[in-house]
Amino acid sequence: MRAFLSAACLSLLSTTALAQTTDPAAPLGKLSDAARPTGYRIDMTIDPNQPRFSGHDEIDTVVKAPTRKLYLHGRDLKVTRAVALVGGRPIAATWTQVDPTGVVRLDFAATVPAGAVTLAFDWSGTFADGPAGLYRVKVGDAWYSWTQFESIDARAAFPSFDEPGFKTPFTISITTRPGLKTISNARETGVAKAGKLERHVFEVTKPLPTYLVAMVTGPFAEDKGTVPATPQRTTPLPLGTVATAGQRDRLAYATRETPRIVSLLESYFGQGFPFPKLDQIASPVMPGAMENAGADIYADNILLLDRGATVAQRQAFGMVVAHELSHQWFGDLVTPAWWDDLWLNESFANWMGFRIGNEWRPELNIGVGALAEGFDAMDIDSLEVGRAIHQPIATNAEIDSAFDGITYGKGGQVVAMIAAWLGDEKFRSGVRLHMQRHAYGNATSEQFFASLAEGAKDPRVVPALKSFVDQQGVPVVSVVRNGDRLTLTQSRYAFLGSTPKAERWSVPVCVGAVGGTARSCTLLDGPNATIASPGAGAIVPNAGGTGYYRFDLAPADWKALIAAGGTLPAGDALATIDSLWAQFRAGKGQAGWLVDAARTMAANAYPVAAVGNGQRLAGLRAEGMIGADALPAYRALMARTYAPRLTALGFDPADGAHADDAPDRQSLREALVGLVAEEAQDPAVRATLVKAARAYLGGDVRALDQAYLGQALRLLVEEQGVAMAKTLFDRAVTSQDSVFRSAALSAVASSGRPDVARWLLALTDDRMRSTERVEAVVTLAQTGGTAELAGNWVLTNYDRIAAGTNGVFLAGRLPRVFAGQCDAATARRVEAVLGPKVRAQNAAVLAFDRMVETIRHCGDLKAARSAEVTAAIRVG
């Protein structure tokens, strides 16, 4: 699964979350070994037009010892029949949900003997309105339904042993209205009349855990294709791209581009695609993607691209599709034994997503994005509260906390670091051995470590990997010159005013020479080490940016590195930006260096490096670290730094005006337009965007490229206020164009106007989807001018918000609402108002604690260094 945390929603708990466990003996985490499923036969009746679904479920089970009760899973289901069949003899059972997370106790009327038994159920349930369990959405005039079962939401759709350690074959059939399309994990074998309905039957699946089961029903559009045979697979693989009817014209890109990604993955793993077909399905409310075996589900804007797709959209397609398809091996073929090994799935898939995405379309420069994500994760990992990548999970309430930047960003970077240290061939040998040993089964972290060490023939990999996987925190490597030698010292990075527990790592360190190819590398497994300097000039202590660590330098070396910023390769530039700003936030370095870096790196060839310092300066402005009297100087600085480069590139917002430019050039222009229009407040650029937006809304859709659609519409709302916000809103919620709908709703929420924010927060309109509502609140709270208003609204309305939809994509997103807050008083208020409620509900506690600590650290930094920042801006 690829969860886009920054875009995900706000809800924390299900409506049952305030209920208490009614059975003290109930297993609130992993089930006991009293019973084990060996196969499922599920017949679902799913009509998305109706508010409820129903089903019949038979679970072949082996019972360990004679018993009068068993525990399994089901959440908020209305069960009308529960029975155990033993040798054809029925034993009635009473179904009782004993915990809000979906733990169920079956009490039998007579003793169930040890051995084979079939548990049979009839039930019905209510569709969710967001991506959790079995959910439905109305698009245009039609209803559609999808499933999202990871982590523990299969139990909201059917009775089950809903754990990753239970892998069995599934025989699935779906009964629905005639004419609707149905999709599941296996190939459809036939359709038969069932009264006025139709029953779609599917082949028996390979062994799967419940969280990878998929059921999709509705009047979908489909584009069919195949993945040609490869050396690893001798027959073509059936391929389908599926979306709601209004997206029919956006299917072809995925059908055309997916085969190359599949073939690259087959080549890496050394074996064919592990399932007999592949459907890729778009959902308008998914804020990410999910790797259901043979039936991946993606957000519309990830999978469905048209001829005007931006570079960022194509990058996201390549990375996310490669991520999800790599899961077909690492996660689906070999599944974690329990949720504490989730990182094995997501960290590896994150690394593979960027790696294979980069091989798929090298010109899009997708691979460097992994570094940026890894550096972003360091901010979370540097907090005093937190967790290791590999964390024990004792209860169901703790599971969704594992789907965060530590698992994806840190885990992916650590995998990349170890792979680079071992060498690609050795690392791949370990991965292939792991796949062979545990195919269609389960594996633990220890088993992965063993496969990696044996396949790579290097046992040192295990302690090095464990030092990053099994403990929290970010190493900072201080580098001091001693003639032609460098002294390296490791410690744990800490924000200003923070005193985290000391840790030690086995850090693969590579120091590079700026402008050359020389490198000096070592495994820093003690407090310090000495290595040869790669050169007398400027050095980068995280050469290529692949290491999961930050660095510090003496002032002279910092100045030399900053001066070389315009010429640094992408990885070196990103590592430099991260470590420079990290040292500032640790209370070290000089604020003037941040301004110097913005100027020098503005000339960098890599777009993210060219604008990265400017975007961080914009963050300081938003956090109030630049005094109001220095804002004119700040605007002038941003104009001097970035407007000339935009002028040199040229800017025309019309659709396709710059389509012939190289991808990096397109990305740079888009980022520069944002800085020049928003931070420099350049009147000419703003007027150009507003004029294009007016023409676009007037019917000239070629007047505005997708790259500038959201920004131009936002400026229009900023200029015209509530009247324009209402117009855009109405057009958005009646549109089936997923690109326009998303851009328009985002524009309404991000205008920065308090009057628009108050109107939007008070709005009740069923045409706005539940996920869009919470996304709007998050956007309001992250936007200057409306952040405090939205934050106060959340504090006032928390109890109502907390009664929202459950699910891994929607859990623990409260920190996003307060991301723009930056003072100790707010941290104390949020803790006082929400802390007791969050802890009483025992959900998303870690995310909440991280948020409070982040606000406090920001306030500490502002109090200590805002005067210095303001002075540097005036000089700059």
The counted number of beta strands is: 29
Helix content: 40-55%
CATH superfamily label of the domain at 34-219? tricorn interacting facor f3 domain
pLDDT averaged over residues: 93
Counting DSSP H or I runs of 4 or more residues, the number of helices is: 24
Radius of gyration: 27 Å
Q: What is the 3D form?
A: globular
CATH topology of the domain at 34-219: Immunoglobulin-like
Strand arrangement within the widest β-sheet reads: 4-7-6-5-8-3-2-11-14-13
Please identify, by name, the CATH architecture of the domain at 34-219: Sandwich
Backbone structural class: alpha+beta
- N-to-C span: 44 Å
Largest β sheet strand count, sense and barrel closure: 10 strands, mixed
Strand-residue proportion:
15-25%
CATH class of the domain at 34-219: Mainly Beta
Low-confidence stretches: 5-18, 805-811
